Amino acid sequence: FGEGAASDDLPYTDVGRADWFHDPVAYAYEHGIMSGVSEDRFEPEGTLTRAMMVAMLWRLEGQPQPESVRSFADVPDGTWYTQAVEWAAEKGIVSGYGDDLFGPEDNITREQLAAILYRYAAEKAYDTSQGGMAAREFSDWGSVSPYAEQAISWAVNAGIISGMGDNTLAPRGTATRGQAAVILMGLDKLAGL
Length: 193
Description:
Strand content: under 5%
Radius of gyration: 17 Å
Order of helices and strands: HHHHHH
């Protein structure tokens, strides 16, 4: 079952039952966490922006209203991601790049994703103590930014993020929409939901 026909449970022609991302995409779709890029396309290999990731966590939380406004210079009022970014900043899940910038349209790197997920898990009081040496076994561990080392170590040991199949983590590589769906489903399992 491939490209061109929607599966029984999804409206997307680019997500087939045999695809590695099918079940996570179905999970994200059914729970209203992620939507497609159009009515019939999910674009699982498409890149994920920082705003998209924060919006997914915000939706996972039921779209709570931020209690205060912590605006970044590059997050204007009234966008589809404004409240999500304000909520995430308020909860300490994101802090931006400095110089009052968030970079909402920047493609999210895998290490940025791990850092955001780690802070989200800590905010939710999930067990974030799953440290260890597993992440250091990857051949490109040395390229992980210092701010993300603890987060990536946790994410690998908790089974939230896995390697790329060639013994690399690709910490500065971009994350895809399909990978994000897999990660969100893994977060749900971590929470014991």
